[in-house]
Amino acid sequence: MQKVINEIKVFLQGDSNAQPIIFIHGFPFDHTLWDDVVKQFKDHYYCISYDIRGFGDSEVGCGQYTMESYVDDLEAIIMQLDLKDVILCGFSMGGYIALRANERLQNFKALILANTTTTSDNDEAKLKRANAIQKIEKEGVKPFLEGFFTVALTKNYQKEHGEKIQLLKEKVLKFDPIGIKGGLLAMITRTDTTKSLEQTPPTLLIEASDDEIIPSKTMEELAKKIKNSHYVEIQDSGHISMVQKPQEFVKALQTFLQVI
Length: 260
What we know:
Blueprint: E1 2-5, E2 8-13, E3 20-24, H1 35-41, E4 46-50, H2 67-80, E5 87-91, H3 93-105, E6 110-114, H4 123-139, H5 141-152, H6 155-160, H7 162-173, H8 177-188, E7 203-208, H9 218-223, E8 229-234, H10 241-244, H11 246-259
Parallel strand pairs: 3-4, 3-5, 5-6, 6-7, 7-8
Antiparallel strand pairs: 1-2, 2-4
Helix pairs in contact: 2-3, 4-5, 4-8, 5-7
């Protein structure tokens, strides 16, 4: 089932009376990043995924996004679907959204945070994203995307799964560049959410051993700041851990969901 809420394309699978889980994809993907994961949970949970504004089939608009506007969209989805005791599952940029939503709304049953962090961009990171926006404006999305995938997945995976990676690239290349630049801008605007970890509900933190985007042991350090935390490191995986190690990723979620 599909809905459009606040110009956002939302995808619903499972029994609406079951425990709701909202899956928030990372940059620069769309909701289909979660397809293999959702298949494993839709028979027992109400699985909601959506295309973040500017990505997939959601509206692009002016592209002047902020992290706050992304959270506004998430809040609109929760309110219109009348969801209670939601579990948020956010990957990378989706984790930034989940963390800020937890800080603002403070009514979630649990969080699942994969390959993400609470810290805002330092000056070096802001300049890097600004340069990426400028590069996309001059050269288009393709060169930027080639560089992104070089660091987002391990070299071995890139050698062995070229066809799958190409499909991911082709999907992203269909998105409006305005939305992709808007995503970079939104990440520049995010605030530091570290202090909010003191009021965080039960939280699963998933890290990848070979993640070149989120520094090693970032999630482990975050887990130490959360009273009811569960930490998992997926071995031999790069940043996009649910793609590179789907079985291990699903197992981590299943184990966590059984104990909360």
